[in-house]
């Protein structure tokens, strides 16, 4: 049995499985917070191997390996001194009901954003980003998308719930400006005519320096509010085997962390890490990569908004 303390609608567990051991909140709308972590355990939109619904818990568990470091190398500030992060646990929905899930994600995110809170969301498969974008667009208007992935996810075919169609629908709904958006790590086929997005493919991602990639991203998005979504299969399977649709030829974890650290000027307004599927992981390396990327995103957000 774990000792539980309740204060200001937070539950502080002696051994709680929360991201970075941050407080678990009963209702994120009633507490003070800068960033709310929300798990979205959904993988019914996958086209490959299922299992990403277990991703949020896997990344939380892996993050305990990172929580001891007060000041995260090579950042020069202690995150917890400048950014109040809480973990709201996982969104609940009727099992098997994609329509209800989509509606609840958008409603929950809209409520938190209206209160001035920012969100770090954990998938789940990549479809979860679409309702998140809908909520963020209500608050920030049309955004730029910075998208790390092996796939463009701009395919027009598929059902209403498909993790390969979000960025076909998002620009058509006016949520993002694809001409001011960048996709990094792409190494699967897509229709280049009228694609619109700036693409830094897997080969370019490996050959260009992190600073050069960051410069392309920064110049493309300009001063637009930015939503950053990270599909863990942007990493090569050597660094992230635990995912539903792994593709060889991807980025290294080190390269990705350095790209993110070089994006300090972005007006980051929303962020997610998706497609971690722990059933296919080895020694939790994929979950650790996802947790590490999420932690870098928190530092990136804090550097822009709180320092």
Strand content: 15-25%
Largest sheet: 8 strands, parallel
In the sheet with the most strands, the strands line up as 5-4-6-11-10-7-8-9
Radius of gyration, in Å, reads 18 Å
Integer average pLDDT: 94
The CA-CA distance between the termini, in Å, is 40 Å
* N-to-C SSE string, H for helix and E for strand: EEEEHHEHEHEHEEHHEHEH
**Number of strand segments:** 11
Overall helicity:
25-40%
Name the overall outline: globular
Our count of helices gives: 9
Structural class: alpha/beta
Polypeptide structure, described:
This protein has 307 residues and is an alpha/beta fold. Helices cover 32% and strands 19% of the residues. It contains 9 helices and 11 strands. It has helices at residues 55-63, 79-82, 98-114, 129-140, 166-172, 202-207, 210-221, 253-261, 285-305; strands at residues 4-7, 10-13, 24-25, 35-40, 85-90, 118-123, 144-148, 182-186, 198-201, 225-231, 267-274. The strands form 2 sheets. It has an 8-stranded parallel β-sheet with strand order 5-4-6-11-10-7-8-9, sandwiched between helices. A 3-stranded antiparallel β-sheet has the order 1-2-3, with no helix packed on it. Helix 4 (129-140) packs parallel to helix 5 (166-172). The longest helix has 21 residues, at 285-305. The relative contact order is 0.17. Mean pLDDT is 94; it is low at 1-7 and 11-15.
């Amino acid at each position: 049995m774990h000792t539980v303390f309740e204060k200001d609608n937070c539950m502080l567990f002696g051994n709680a499985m929360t991201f970075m051991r941050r407080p678990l909140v009963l209702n994120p709308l009633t507490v003070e917070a800068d960033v709310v972590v929300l798990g979205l355990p959904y993988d019914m939109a996958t086209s490959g191997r299922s299992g990403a619904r277990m991703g949020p818990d896997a990344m939380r568990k892996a993050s305990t390996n990172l929580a001891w470091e007060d000041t995260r190398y090579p950042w020069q500030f202690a995150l917890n001194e400048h950014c109040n992060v809480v973990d709201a646990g996982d969104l609940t929905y009727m099992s098997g009901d994609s329509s209800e899930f989509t509606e609840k994600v958008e409603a929950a995110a809209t409520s938190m954003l209206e209160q001035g809170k920012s969100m770090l969301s954990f998938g789940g498969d990549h479809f979860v980003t679409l309702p998140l974008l809908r909520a963020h667009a209500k608050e920030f208007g049309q955004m730029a998308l910075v998208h790390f992935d092996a796939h463009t996810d701009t395919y027009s075919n598929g059902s209403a719930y498909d993790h390969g169609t979000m960025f076909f629908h998002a620009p058509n709904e006016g949520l993002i400006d694809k001409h001011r958006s960048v996709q990094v790590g792409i190494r699967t086929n897509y229709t280049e005519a009228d694609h619109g997005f700036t693409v830094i493919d897997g080969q370019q991602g490996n050959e260009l320096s992190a600073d050069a990639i960051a410069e392309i991203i920064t110049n493309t998005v300009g001063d637009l509010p930015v939503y950053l979504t990270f599909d863990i299969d942007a990493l090569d399977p050597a660094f992230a085997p635990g995912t539903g649709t792994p593709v060889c030829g991807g980025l290294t974890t080190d390269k990705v962390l350095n790209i993110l650290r070089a994006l300090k000027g972005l007006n980051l307004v929303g962020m997610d890490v998706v497609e971690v599927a722990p059933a296919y992981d080895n020694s939790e390396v994929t979950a650790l990569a996802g947790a590490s990327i999420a932690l870098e995103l928190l530092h990136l957000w804090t550097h822009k908004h709180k320092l």
